[in-house]
Amino acid sequence: MSNFENLIEGYYRFRGTEWQKERERWTELAAGQSPKVMIIACSDSRVDPSTIFGTHPGEVFVVRNVANLVPPCENGGGYHGVSAAIEFAVTKLKVEEIVVLGHGACGGVNAALTGSLADSVHGDGGFVLDWIGLLDEARDKVVAEHGTGPEGQRALEEECVRVSIANMMTFPFISERVDAGKLKLRGAVFAIADGKLRVLEGERFANA
Amino acid sequence: MSNFENLIEGYYRFRGTEWQKERERWTELAAGQSPKVMIIACSDSRVDPSTIFGTHPGEVFVVRNVANLVPPCENGGGYHGVSAAIEFAVTKLKVEEIVVLGHGACGGVNAALTGSLADSVHGDGGFVLDWIGLLDEARDKVVAEHGTGPEGQRALEEECVRVSIANMMTFPFISERVDAGKLKLRGAVFAIADGKLRVLEGERFANA
Amino acid sequence: MSNFENLIEGYYRFRGTEWQKERERWTELAAGQSPKVMIIACSDSRVDPSTIFGTHPGEVFVVRNVANLVPPCENGGGYHGVSAAIEFAVTKLKVEEIVVLGHGACGGVNAALTGSLADSVHGDGGFVLDWIGLLDEARDKVVAEHGTGPEGQRALEEECVRVSIANMMTFPFISERVDAGKLKLRGAVFAIADGKLRVLEGERFANA
Amino acid sequence: MSNFENLIEGYYRFRGTEWQKERERWTELAAGQSPKVMIIACSDSRVDPSTIFGTHPGEVFVVRNVANLVPPCENGGGYHGVSAAIEFAVTKLKVEEIVVLGHGACGGVNAALTGSLADSVHGDGGFVLDWIGLLDEARDKVVAEHGTGPEGQRALEEECVRVSIANMMTFPFISERVDAGKLKLRGAVFAIADGKLRVLEGERFANA
Lengths: 208, 208, 208, 208
Known about the structure:
Four copies of one chain form a homotetramer.
Chain A: H1 3-16, H2 18-21, H3 23-30, E1 37-42, H4 49-52, E2 60-65, H5 81-92, E3 97-103, H6 107-114, H7 126-132, H8 136-146, H9 150-168, H10 172-179, E4 184-191, E5 196-201, E6 204-207
Helix pairs in contact in A: 8-9
């Protein structure tokens, strides 16, 4: 049996049980979404935010990409997927909070930390290399202080969340609303192995 | 209570129940991920793929952005988030299937269909406008045949999935593996209102 | 919502739960059926034999018609649905037992008992009148002894099971196998109100 | 243990669990049935409609015979079991929908398709041969187009449902109600092997 067939079987379970139990909810949702929170999480198969936060359909607008990264504001042309999603969530859906969710054992962060993809070409790591270039500055700082081992990995996972938050602040439609108290930017890191969630409080991360 | 606080409460529930029940599974997952499937879904709060397909942690590598779009291969510099995610999934994780999951009542598709964001500037719809420019050609074809009403919306939601699949085939590392039978590209559309899942079979969509 | 839609929702439940749990069983069943028992039951919505006997897919071959009746063997042309089903079950599937399941509060039996459909024309009770003509002889005997009230109803429900068994014995392919000990004919009556099952033991019915 | 004994054990389970849980429901049902739907299904042991549609006691009036066939209206004398059941359901119980449920791997359909029972005598396939004569015309059409292999089998299973629906329309008490919008005739085919349900929508069957 192929994997897609497994997904279809999963769909039948969902359609035959949960969907039916919340039928009215789904009918309402068909009319439109009005989430109050946006989450930016990693594509990693182990860190589904709806699982980790126990959310329900309609509650969170979600972007997922490698290493939960937000690029800085760039006004040139081109396809800016994350910028489009943030703009839609903030200016159209008017979400009140954006949570950047990092995680332990992140492959993208590890590649940034160790330089394992240096000199890779497009099609064999090069696109990932370009993308995690967003972490270059943070990486240098972390390596100088913590090295490239487990301690460096954890530090860069946290720093990566700070980078995405800082980059969000370069979008005027974000910084204006944050300054006006209409939007809050949050950070957290989920540490797969022991299931701990560390939350950004001011300058530092602490267990939830 | 703020919305982020709700998420933290949800995390405590997850940590206190599901995480504990599958503690061994999480310990294994901490060592690494090996998903066989990648899903590209919309950021829309109503279409969480792990809910719709009933998947478990570790099973699917997920990208979510506005309108579940994949841009064509562009080898210039810049931050190509979707390209990086696909490259990582295909060349590093060696997933065997990539599923593009569209959905009913998609706001991004609707903006493309109706031109409601035309002339928008960055910060007020302009980033979304640039992004859904990926649908321009498909939009013209759909509008000519189905108009800009509900029928056009449904047609463009399906066409949008086809566009992402076609764009994926412009990446050499994808087309080579598809041609060699090592990778399959799938499409599906989840129609929130009645819970139906339509699956791309050859040229057309049919109920699962 | 129409009733057929309810059935479809029920199908989704079945497909998403029970079908999946017994997936291997269904794969085996697709290759062919080999039930050991045939049941002849009433079309009445209250007496589903798989519910009453807790049977699983593949276990019982089932005929359902008004008043669980078997006509006598008629070798002229025409569409003999019950005869075809019995012939298929006995000579092709080689079932080892045939159970006639009557039930309390049977509308067909009541019409036979009270003559409420006498003189009805086809399209307004006439087809039912013809069909329950199979009970004419039994009815006369029961009414003479028990009248047309509740006692007569219960007596005719039991007699109806005996009629079907007697008619089955007019089919040579049945009587031969019964005489050879290869086939057993059974009778039972399910009394909806108190949930009792009365079973034919020799000449008389007794609680299971 | 004999097979009938298994049924009796199953009855005890039913009586000791489900019946008790819904005791009030059964008390109500003892007063009379008022189903809104009639189902015409095959006698095949694998396609119990209450299982496939997840229905409860009192909900559906059920006819089961070989290949879920309805003969055309015949006003001559004789025992017309299916006609009696339809007449009772439509004119007495006033059901609003009649569903013809076909299924995959149907032995009756296969015999019609392949002519495997041709020249059979009563008692050794002849009754079945007469009965599936109802499919002669449909069979010729299907064989010409699809042959007698798996494709022909699936086509005739679907065509068989259409034949039963067409034959129902030859009963004036049916066609009048259908024309007046008081009765709907539905068709579906359950494909045992993969658990898919195909539903007749207008002229063609599509997945539910």
